[in-house]
């Protein structure tokens, strides 16, 4: 188990984060889980351990220095190979009905948090002169959408951050790849009438794992996954 590669996945307690955790574990990656629901994370940890790999859990808010320090320390001790910035929140409502607190929360979780975590993890990859940062973005990170002003702003911002980070990453021998995902069948899109056309978390996780396995031969920094692939 000590010779396996290690992946850190934020927002691991449900949806795509959960699917990613189990997919990487089944492919013999050690997994560092992160989230805010300790009960769900413990359940997922047991599933990961059943795959015969190592699993660590950090519960906490990514905007807090204590959480960032714990993740950085653990990532360093595990000699982290892949960081997946997955944690996000979603809201769909008219902008004039969106509260100031909702705007702050969306921007903080979807943009500020991955920037802070990447800043904490980047020195590990820089020391190794290799590593992969996968940002789980959204189609909303490239295109505006009705009722998603704050969400689109956060995801456009994430795209801008990742694009600029490429300069530092190229100098350090680190790869940054953004995955732009269309509507996915999770709790985020509850109430939609076209769920049968939406991407399943397990499908997206399988695709993202393929990218992580082949990224050294891929000369790309952005990948779109906008519809069901199976």
Topology summary:
Elements: E1 6-9, H1 15-26, E2 30-35, H2 38-49, E3 55-59, H3 65-77, E4 82-85, H4 100-128, E5 132-138, H5 149-172, E6 175-181, H6 201-214, E7 222-225
Parallel strand pairs: 1-2, 1-4, 2-3, 4-5, 5-6, 6-7
Helix pairs in contact: 1-2, 1-6, 3-4, 4-5
Structural class: alpha/beta
Helicity, in percent?
Answer: 40-55%
Low-confidence segments: none
As a percent range, the share of strand residues is 15-25%
CATH topology: Rossmann fold
Number of domains: 1
Residue-averaged pLDDT, rounded? Answer: 90
CATH superfamily: NAD(P)-binding Rossmann-like Domain
Give the CATH level 1 class: Alpha Beta
How many angstroms separate the termini? 32 Å
Number of helices: 6
Q: Which sequence of strands runs across the widest sheet?
A: 3-2-1-4-5-6-7
The biggest sheet, with number of strands, parallel, antiparallel or mixed sense and barrel status, is: 7 strands, parallel
CATH architecture: 3-Layer(aba) Sandwich
Note the overall shape.
globular
Radius of gyration, whole Å: 17 Å
The succession of helices and strands, N to C, reads EHEHEHEHEHEHE
Compute the number of strand runs. 7
Question: Which structural traits does this protein have?
Answer:
230 residues; alpha/beta; Rossmann fold; 6 helices
Question: What does this molecule look like?
Answer:
This protein has 230 residues and is of the alpha/beta class. It is built from six helices and seven strands. Helix 4 (100-128) packs parallel to helix 5 (149-172). The two termini are 32 Å apart.
């Amino acid at each position: 188990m000590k010779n396996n590669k290690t992946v850190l996945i934020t927002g691991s307690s449900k949806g795509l984060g959960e699917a990613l955790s189990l997919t990487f574990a089944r492919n013999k990656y050690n997994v560092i889980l992160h989230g805010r629901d300790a009960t769900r994370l413990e359940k997922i940890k047991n599933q990961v351990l059943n795959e015969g790999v190592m699993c660590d859990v950090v519960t906490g808010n990514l905007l807090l220095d204590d959480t960032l320090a714990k993740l950085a320390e653990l990532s360093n001790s595990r000699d982290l190979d892949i960081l997946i910035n997955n944690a996000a929140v979603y809201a769909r409502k008219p902008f004039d009905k969106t509260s100031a607190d909702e705007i702050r929360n969306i921007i903080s979780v979807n943009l500020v948090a991955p920037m802070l975590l990447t800043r904490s993890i980047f020195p590990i990859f820089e020391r190794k002169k290799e590593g992969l940062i996968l940002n789980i973005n959204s189609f909303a990170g490239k295109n505006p959408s009705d009722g998603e002003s704050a969400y689109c702003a956060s995801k456009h911002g994430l795209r801008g951050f990742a694009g600029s980070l490429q300069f530092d990453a190229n100098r350090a021998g680190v790869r940054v790849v953004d995955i732009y995902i269309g509507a996915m069948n999770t709790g985020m899109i509850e109430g939609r009438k076209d769920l049968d056309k939406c991407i399943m978390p397990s499908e997206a996780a399988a695709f993202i794992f393929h990218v992580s396995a082949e990224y050294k031969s891929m000369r790309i920094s952005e990948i779109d996954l906008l519809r069901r692939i199976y």
